[in-house]
Design a protein that fits this description.
Elements (H helix, E strand, L loop, with lengths): L7 E4 L5 E5 L2 E5 L8 E5 L3 E4 L5 H5 L9 E6 L5 E6 L12 H10 L7 H9 L25 H9 L5 E3 L10 H5 L40 E10 L2 E7 L16 E4 L8 E2 L3 E3 L7 E5 L6 E5 L7 E6 L5 E5 L2 E7 L7 E3 L15 E4 L4 E5 L5 H5 L27 H11 L3 E3 L2 H9 L68 E7 L10 E3 L14 E5 L17 E4 L7 E2 L2 E3 L5
Parallel strand pairs: 9-12, 20-24, 23-27
Antiparallel strand pairs: 1-2, 1-14, 2-5, 3-4, 5-13, 6-7, 6-8, 9-10, 10-11, 14-15, 16-17, 17-18, 18-21, 19-20, 21-28, 22-28, 23-25, 25-26
Length: 579
């Protein structure tokens, strides 16, 4: 299991490390390469953690030469070898798609499809722009790109008038002058330094949320897909490389095509393996206690989503491992819903501007309850939700708390099958129960008995933190209660407000919607991980709040993503198309 919560296997014959990627889907809404569409990955698969290295490739192709990065002066009177590309731990390059495919087939592997590559690059973040997040320029340690390291070396050798001889020529009319366009905000600045003139050893930069390295930067990668172009069929390759410095070339959606027999100093590959074919392949695993490797033949099976019947509210339920999920219809009954609150709503805040929201999918599976301590400890067995003022928060059936946003995401990745956190739009839609209600229990204030676990008589005076208690309400729990102890909403979802607040996928930002006031699948992600000082949205309230403003469905709040709290947990969702 890697630090991101994804299972890893080492392919015995090649030494390639493979990561188990869950099935799922993502929607391409804004793209320079295709019309808006949804891409579904129907089955989990294994994907190389790193690009295939020279050392791995030469185990069966001993004579392969990845060559050197060579440039010539603008006057064509001299050439200069900038860097060797042959280091053992550097990605293999100057291989055609046919050669990469032969290598894979020889070892029972294959190239990933273009859709598999992008799904893995996004790491389940359906609207992620770059592998490191949505901000430009990339953060430090994001990857190996065309930066000042390369530019300064070219200038040192005679100015910016160099032309590359063995890279993808349409992108390389003049490398030095291209890299020097510092007034273009879509380019990396002269202050961006990754430390490598050409390719870097694989894994030298930070991984994405699933633990995959170099999904952008270092080298572009062949896929197993072809596409028509100019009357001929070309092979699709994905990702930016060590020469790229433009915003559009480093985006997850970036595609390009070349003849399958093309060879470039910027183009390599990583391998994939279909689920179900692993029973014919040897893997080695490391014993965590003694550090020794053992060899086994592993059969990986697809996690099963099992139909569990229809709940009392009339909605289908499914189980995945020990999680119960309720399938709720999206866009019904009104082809969307009004997100936010009107000016007349009591307790509203200024960041709740009303706007119409639609979803591209028809249904969404939402966990019936927040994730419990027992469920989370199957992933992290030593987790401590920390007791509060003598009132326990660690019981198996209580919602897990004291988890960071990254830990919640890691649990989703570990559980697999495309599980993720809810977006705040999905959370609000689910909380309103399909009829636009103000509170998860209805439209009446104050809440009636059984509405939820809030700050009330049982809380007030019992817990050290006293905050907005409902003096006339008594839920019987001074702190968190076991999940499911109070009335569900019209979808059969429990604890949509009260008990714990829940992490959402979204970053701390304002609502995003067009001028016309309508949004489709809105989300405001701000990065691929938490990081110091970054906030994420939370929805709902915990057992320590109980005022009119906080208990409304439209209420928005934020918390530092890297700071666990005793009132914040999470629930999970299954993206449409992942079943």
């Amino acid at each position: 299991m890697n630090p991101q919560g994804r299972p890893e296997f080492r392919h015995k014959k090649t030494g390639v490390i493979l990561i188990l990627i869950p099935k799922g889907s993502y929607t391409v809404i804004y793209s320079a390469y295709a019309e808006p569409h949804t891409v579904s990955i129907e089955r989990p698969y294994l994907l190389g953690k790193y690009e295939v290295t020279n050392a791995q490739y030469r185990r069966s192709r001993a004579g392969h030469d990845s060559g050197h990065f060579v440039v010539e002066s603008a006057g064509l009177d001299r050439t200069y070898v900038v860097a060797s590309l042959n280091g053992d731990e550097r990605p293999v390059v100057n291989v055609s798609c046919g050669e990469a495919s032969e290598y894979c087939q020889e070892h029972g592997l294959r190239l990933p499809t273009s859709g598999e590559w992008e799904w893995a690059a996004r790491a389940g973040e359906a609207l992620l722009t770059f592998t490191w997040g949505n901000g430009w320029p990339p953060s430090a340690n994001a990857g190996n790109f065309g930066d000042a390291t390369l530019l300064n070396e070219l200038i040192r050798r005679g100015g910016g008038g160099w032309q590359a001889l063995n890279c993808f020529d349409p992108r390389w009319s003049n490398i030095g002058r291209r890299l020097q366009k510092q007034n273009d905000t879509n380019l990396l600045s002269s202050e961006s330094i990754d430390g490598f003139v050409a390719t870097a050893p694989v894994g030298a930069f930070a991984p994405n949320l699933w633990g995959l390295h170099d999904m952008e930067g270092n080298v572009s990668e062949w896929t197993g897909d072809s596409a028509p172009w100019g009357g001929e069929t070309l092979t699709v390759w994905r990702g930016g490389d060590w020469t790229e410095n433009r915003i559009e070339y480093l985006a997850c959606e970036r595609h390009s095509r070349s003849a399958p027999d093309s060879r470039y100093a910027t183009l390599g590959f990583r391998v994939a393996l279909s689920l179900g074919s692993a029973n014919a392949v040897e893997f080695s695993t490391t014993n965590e206690k003694n550090g020794r490797d053992s060899t086994s033949r592993i059969t990986l099976t697809d996690p099963q989503l099992v139909f569990a019947g229809r709940n009392k509210q009339g909605f289908d339920e499914y189980t995945l491992k020990d999680i119960t999920l309720v399938e709720i219809p999206l866009n019904k009954p009104y082809n969307g819903f009004m997100m936010g609150s009107p000016d007349s709503e009591g307790g509203r805040n200024n960041d709740e501007s009303q706007h119409w929201v639609k979803f591209s999918a028809k249904t969404l599976l939402v966990s019936k309850f927040p994730i419990t301590n027992q469920q989370f400890r199957r992933f992290k067995k030593d987790h401590n939700s920390i007791d509060d003022s003598g009132f326990g928060l660690n019981e198996d059936a209580q919602p897990v708390v004291v988890v960071t946003w990254d830990e919640a995401k890691a649990y989703c990745n570990w559980a697999g099958n495309g599980l993720r956190l809810l977006t705040e739009a999905e959370w609000e839609f689910a909380a309103r129960g399909g009829d636009g209600r103000i509170f998860p229990w209805g439209n009446d204030w104050p809440p009636q008995a059984g509405a939820g676990n809030f700050a009330d008589k049982a809380f007030n005076g019992q817990v050290a933190v006293k905050n907005n208690a409902l003096e006339a309400y008594d839920d019987g729990f001074p702190a968190a209660s076991p999940v499911g102890r109070f009335d569900p909403n019209p979808y059969g979802l429990y604890d949509m407000t009260g008990n714990v607040q829940c992490w959402c996928e979204d970053g701390d930002g304002g609502y995003r919607y067009p001028t016309g006031g309508e949004a489709i699948d809105p989300i405001d992600p701000i990065g691929s991980g938490s990081g110091s000082g970054i906030f994420r949205l939370v929805r709902g309230v915990g057992w320590g709040q109980g005022d009119l403003g906080t208990l409304r469905c439209a209420m928005r709040a934020k918390a530092r993503a890297d700071t666990p709290q005793q009132c914040i947990g999470f629930r999970v969702a299954l993206h449409p198309g992942t079943r």
